[in-house]
Design a protein that fits this description.
- The protein is globular.
- It has a 7-stranded antiparallel β-sheet with strand order 1-7-6-5-4-3-2.
- The protein is built from 5 helices and 7 strands, in the order αβααββββββαα.
- The N and C termini lie far apart (39 Å).
- With 155 residues, the chain is α+β, with helices and mostly antiparallel strands.
- The longest helix has 20 residues.
């Protein structure tokens, strides 16, 4: 994607302070067994097709939709800085395609400042995605991720 200043009007961001060390938040995001527990809506079963966590590696998950079609989430890891940052391309077919996810993990004592940004190709596309429920959808997923961390990983 293009430079950061141009991306400001094409970016949607969620921030969350998670009451767990950065290592556990990182694990919840990078371990495919954990991702399958929080990634999609609570009523949807997620299947991991591939999860090659390395720069250049591909990830792909599927969820069966009530109409019998599959919802596919996939991308390629572009940058990985352990316990700090993940950048990946992403397509969420059939709803969202051609975006970049920027996931930041900032250690703050025993807590983690978690920042999730999605950069869209155009400002119009960004606004449409926001209206489609970006904050509710991802916010709900990250609440499930936090529950997983606190109830299972932190013990």
């Amino acid at each position: 994607m293009s430079n950061k200043n141009e991306a400001t009007n094409r970016t949607l961001t969620l921030k969350k302070v998670i009451d767990a060390p950065v290592k556990l938040v990182w694990e919840a995001w990078t371990n495919s067994d954990h991702v399958m527990q929080w990634w999609g809506p609570p009523s949807m079963k997620i299947e991991m097709i591939s999860h090659d966590f390395r720069v250049g590696g591909k990830w792909k998950y599927s969820m069966p939709m009530p109409d019998g079609n599959l919802f596919i989430s996939e991308g390629t890891y572009l940058e990985i800085e352990e316990y700090k940052r993940i950048v990946t391309s992403a397509d969420f077919k059939p709803m969202t395609e051609g975006v970049e996810l920027h996931v930041l993990f900032e250690e703050d004592g025993d807590k983690t400042n978690f920042t999730f940004s999605v950069i869209h190709a155009t400002e119009e596309y960004c606004k449409a995605q926001e209206k489609m429920g970006f904050y509710n959808g991802w916010g709900s997923a990250f609440n499930r991720m936090e529950t997983l961390i606190i109830n299972q990983l932190k013990k």
